[in-house]
Fold this sequence. Notes:
globular
Amino acid sequence: xxxxxxKTGRDFGRRYVQLIAAVLYNCHITGFxxxxxxxGSFKGICAPGLxxxxxxxxxxxxxxxxxxxxxxxxxxxxxxxxxxTFLLFGVLxxxxxxxxxxxxxxxxxxxxxxxxxxxxKSRVTRGLSCVKYGILIVLVIAYPLIRIAPGFxxxxxxxxxxxxxxxxxxxxxxxxxQIGGLFSLKVAVLxxxxxxxxxxxxxxxxxxxxxxxxxxxxxxxxxWGIRVEEEKCTxxxxxxxxCRMDVRRVGDRECIHCGxxxxxxxxxxxxxxxxxxx
Length: 278
């Protein structure tokens, strides 16, 4: 019972952080009523998590959108500010951002709570986790450089469709008149993503999110996150089996540092901390 209470408290603690982050990212409340996008000075700052620039409530920029915009409009110049932002977030937190500070990650977890049959992780899901790196290379980097347009945001991003596209279209009659095949395609992608997230834990995050792909590259050096005390660890792998992400070990590139592994470790060898991962 004590363990169950401890687990519930930790789960709620992370959920509170996710909710607070979502509210802070989208605190332009009047935007939802007017359908107008906030264009103040804060829009020059990137939020850590995936949150669409064009969401009526958004007060910060999306880091992926900023990267694509910089690549498309840079005339082949290096986008130092955006890359510096990724470096800062990546070195400090890495994929802790995915587990705690991403509004679309929260939405995926709530969708997974819908009582439907679930897909368990397997070699297949572990293989699919590599798809997000292809999306990063093709739609986030190559497409903007070649086509001078933000490929991921324009074609694929379900977060943008849910947070910005649909609310703005519902609010603006002029936009409704301009709906075409591309918007229909994006709604179909969103619908597929919602269904997949209902039956597969954080499916978009695991398989398709290029922002998670970027942060995963920092996993060996990220300052804050889950740490294993090697002297206590017995190698029982209870943590890996309990994890719903496609990890091979605690703290690897697929780990979002949610803390579920702490609840099942019989030796209490897993903790949050900074510095060395040992």
